[in-house]
Amino acid sequence: MSKDFIRIANDQDMQLIIAYFEQALAHYEEVGELMAMQDIKYFLHNVRHFNFVVLKEKVTDITYLFEFPEKTDGKRETGTIVIPLQNN
Questions:
Q1: Three-state secondary-structure class, residue 64
Q2: Quick one: which of 9, 15, 87, 88 has the most CB atoms within 10 Å?
Q3: How far apart are CA 78 and CA 65, in angstroms?
Q4: What is the per-residue DSSP string for 15-63?
Q5: Residues 60/83, Cβ–Cβ less than 8 Å
């Protein structure tokens, strides 16, 4: 994982990330998007196995880099998520 980050995600970050995905899950359940629901359920079920770091913090949002759990072949995948902050 890149060393170009502000800090490792803490418990408060994890609460924000989980709340964001729970809100997304509720939306996709409401509109019946089965594939999105499956992806989000997987993510929520495994969220504590992901590694999160903060790439950027702004008043309006936080950008996280996350690393998927290691695969059996030893390869790792990463992704980013930008979570808008409600208090802006």
A1: strand
A2: 9
A3: 7
A4: HHHHHHHHHHHHHHHHHT-HHHHHHHHHHHHHGGGSEEEEEEE-SSEEE
A5: no
- Region label for 62, one of left (φ > 0), alpha (ψ between -120 and 50) or beta (otherwise): beta
Reported as a pLDDT band with limits 50, 70 and 90, residue 2 is: very low
Sequence letter at residue 33:
E
Look at residues 61, 58, 65 and name the one whose alpha carbon lies nearest to residue 80. Answer: 65
Secondary structure letter of residue 87 according to DSSP: T
* CA–CA separation, 22 and 5 (whole Å): 25
34: left (phi over 0), alpha (psi -120 to 50) or beta: alpha
Place of tokens 């290691």: 70
